Amino acid sequence: MGNQTTEAVWDVPPAEQEHQxxxxxxxxxxxxxxxxxxxxxxxxxxxxTFYQGANIVGAMIMELDKEEPIDEVTLSLYGRLSIxxxxxxxxxxxxxxxxxxxxxxxxxxxxxTSFLKRGRLKGRYEWPFSFRLPKGVSILSSIALHGDxxxxxxxxxxxxxxxxxxxxxxxxxxxxxxxxxxxxxxxxLIIPLTYAxxxxxxxxxxxxxxxxxxxxxxxxxxxxxxxxxxxxxxxAKGLLFKTVPVEAECRLHVSRPLSYTRGGPIHLLISxxxxxxxxxDLLTPRSVHLSLVQRxxxxxxxxxxxxxxxxxxxxxxxxxxxxxxxxxxxxxxxEPALTKTFAGELLVPGDLVPAxxxxxxxxxxxxxxxxxxxxxFTQNVLPKKPLLTEAVGVVTAFAQAPQPRSxxxxxxxx
Length: 414
Fold this sequence. Notes:
By secondary structure, the protein is mostly beta strands. The chain has helices spanning 206-214, 277-282; strands spanning 3-4, 17-24, 31-39, 49-51, 55-83, 87-100, 109-110, 115-117, 120-132, 136-144, 151-156, 161-163, 168-180, 187-196, 200-201, 228-230, 234-240, 244-255, 259-261, 265-274, 288-298, 303-304, 308-310, 315-324, 326-329, 339-347, 356-358, 361-372, 377-379, 388-395.
């Protein structure tokens, strides 16, 4: 779909936002445990935000006024998938032991006024930490039951998101734990993180780049064949005024590459050739129905076969319309008889989650052409079944080229 990742400069904020979290004592409210880190979030109120390949760097500080038994201090990073609020699976886990009473070599970098005994701490201690976020994870996908080799599946690290329509949550959390000796309860500090993969489309065709750069109208498929993909023609059939069978051949062109940046446009052209003059005259830009659809797929957690337990392939169980296209009268060129041409555009929502696949969940996107409507025209289609679909990608950054612009006339905006 013309999608690529690159080590070039990305359109992301600098990692300059500092975040601070702490635990306090119940009696005095004094802070005794603090965690600080820097991220690419735009404000301190936002969750710490990290992008693909980033290092999560910070420090944990513990200040104890009196000697306390401490068995262990750990910091763990989790990636979790939750479905329907009751099924939770870890797809990523990394942990660091910052202090352990059982390890005499884990002396923290403390101030001269503090002292350390095995399992008993007092004073101020500071532990720096760093976690590297990988681009992907390798997860056991089948467990051999009779001595055969187990299988692993590789997944790209999914973005953080919560989708109430799909009842799916992918979340990353940093968890600090202080385990005390004996039967004393431990303490836990949980910090939610936001993670986003980095991906951008390949640059569009040269005529398209020039149109963006010089604020010109787009060149059509005839003058810019590399800038458009012609989809297979489909025919919308139906009845006019409930009695006259009519049909219209629809030829759709979609701007290439077929990967689109969140907040950016998808350019469209459609040519409609009718076999009936009345239907031709009744068609308007609002007659064309095309949308961006998200296909959500679920699979069973494990599928038991004769020799192994294997993750089942996901199947589509839900489709959600995420955006609809706007249409207007196309370029004023001479059209064949009984033919109308409309230009269109679909704006990709800025908060759309890029396609992902992790464990037994996945989602992806497609353009769906649902056909035509007009006064007096009833289309023959199966309920909710589009006439034509085309898989597309949704990415997080713009191409390394002039930024795309919208051409929707104000009066035709959805």
